[in-house]
Amino acid sequence: MSSGIIEDLSAFLSILKKESELLEIDARVDPNLEIAEIHRRVIARGGPALLFTNVADSRFPVATNLFGTSRRMELAFGSRPQKFVKELVQAAETLMPPSFEKLWSMRSLIFDGLKVGTKTVRSGPILEVHKEPPKLTELPLLTSWHSDGGPFVTLPLVYTEHPETGGHNLGMYRIQRYDDTSTGIHWQIHKGGGYHYFAAEQKNEALPLTLYIGGP
After folding, report:
1. Residue 89's domain spans which residues?
2. pLDDT one-digit tens code per residue, 180-194
3. Domain count of the fold of the chain
4. What local confidence, expressed as pLDDT, does residue 178 receive?
5. How far apart are CA 61 and CA 79, in angstroms?
6. Within this chain, do residues 206 and 132 fall inside the same structural domain, yes or no?
7. How far is the C-alpha of 200 from the C-alpha of 209, rounded, in Å?
8. Do 170 and 136 reside in the same domain of the chain?
């Protein structure tokens, strides 16, 4: 089992390999339909995470099925997040009507909740590599279904900020690559990112967006 904070995807892949939870595939595979089909068959059987090291037309490997079982979820995040959610559900059922005694008995849960969120730092690994101009076609984005309009970012984490209040949102929305410099995004107007986009649209402004690839 892993201990402490996993700093990056490479570290997590090393843990999966050590725990016999990773299958490395050296055969040449195509990101257009083939990888997705292999993934579907493996996950249907409760199989391991997959690391494709020889992806057609890309110098990057592709990892899939990283969080496909409860065991790998626990290897990634530990048992604490699940325990925290269970305690929240229990609190919602027992807290009403609130009282000082009930709140005091749940003080550790409250303190844990206060730690959830983001923090501002001056630097980070994400800033170590900068490519200008961008070339999105270098990324081995997958086309997962024959009726898809093209390749999509899988499990994208989309970060936006409200153009007026600065409130932030991190959500998952479908991202389709069009070419080297542009993508489409499927906003859901009732979700946080959709609200931010609507507010920017009302001001006739572009909405800055940061897209993280690689899962939670």
Report:
1. 79-114
2. 999 999 988 788 999
3. 3
4. 96
5. 29
6. yes
7. 12
8. yes
